[in-house]
Amino acid sequence: MNGRERLERFLGTDPADIGCEEAMEVLHVYVDLVAAGQDAAGAYPGVAAHLAVCGPCGADFEGLLAAVTQA
Amino acid sequence: MSVRDPVSVEWIAALTGAAAERAQGEARLHEMLVRVALGELRRRRATAPWLAGVELDDVAHQAAADAMLAILRKLDSFRGESRFTTWAYKFVILEVSAKLGRHYWRVHPQVSLEAESWERLPDRIGVDPGEHAERADLVRAVRHAVDETLTAHQRRVFSAVVLDAVPLDAVVERYGTNRNAIYKALFDARRKIRAYLVAAGYLEREGRGGR
To answer: Are B174 and B114 in contact (CB under 8 A)?
Structure first.
């Protein structure tokens, strides 16, 4: 990957990204679907798009998934 | 409220039942929240290495206590879209994030949101100006885009999160706002910088656009 491609990646914004507030609103539902092996990203594409790029919300997702699968 | 799975039904019954049953349910829930908070804080050690020992325990108990209050306050809003425990754990996970954001400033009081460490820009955007003269030109163009297109708020957020690598939740805490507002400022900053670089001929117009 050259410098321009890295910059493109850094500046990339996904129109499907619904933002932190809406993603966190349904995070518990999304996590239960993931934990059950269902297509959470298909059911909530905007949440999936957000979690892929938002570090803090991605960490919350990973944490909640760990909590429900290790409980 | 339409709760179907039997375990969630039991939880709701315990937390809304007679005083003795409710006290027992709350004690059980609190114990679970503390365990989840401790597990989450340990899991995040890589991103918050400054938190350990007694302080880690304190933060876990604070997060569990605050999550407990929020859960009991919002119990009526649980609609059974997920398991009750997943819904409840979300509160404590979000509390852990918020508390880590707050704790960051106790450990890093010297970090300034006004620092604007521009020398870190090439590294942060993944463009090494030493590679080629064209790369140095690209870095300068990003800097111009920041100067010419971002609002003062977007610039401060960009500088803190991108240049100084301040955790986003710590920026949220410092500005007394919410995560969505800071994320949106960063999202808009990226979009504006990209639009500037496209207009100036540095990047192609195609690609993922705005929100």
So the answer is: no
Query: Which runs of E-coded beta strand occur in chain B?
Result: none
* ipTM computed for the complex: 0.93
Query: Is B93 within 8 Å of A4 when comparing Cβ atoms?
Result: no
Q: Which residues of A touch B209 (CB under 8 A)?
A: 13, 15
Q: Cβ separation of A6 and B47 shorter than 8 Å?
A: no
- Cβ contacts of B193 on chain A, cutoff 8 Å: 11
Question: What is d(CA B92, CA A13) in angstroms, rounded to the nearest whole number?
Answer: 29
In this prediction the pTM is 0.89
- Among the listed residues A49, A52, A58, A32, the one whose alpha carbon sits nearest the alpha carbon of residue B79: A32
